[in-house]
Amino acid sequence: MYTARSFNYWGSITSSLVICMGIKMKEILQGIAGEERVWEKESMARHTTFGAGGEAKYYVVAEDVDVLRQLLQAVAKEKLSFFVIGNGSNLLVSDDGYDGVVIELGDGFKQVKATDGKLKAGAGVMLSRAAGAARENGMKGMEFASGIPGTVGGAVVMNAGAYGGEIKDIIVNATVLNRYGEIITLTKEALDLSYRHSVIPEQGYIVLEAEFSLQGGDKEEIGALMREYNQRRKEKQPLEYPSAGSTFKRPEGYYAGKLIQDSGLAGYSVGGAQVSKKHCGFVINENHATASDIIRLIKDVQRIVLEKQGVKLQPEVKIIGEKSNS
Question: What pTM value is reported for the model?
Answer without folding.
Answer: 0.89
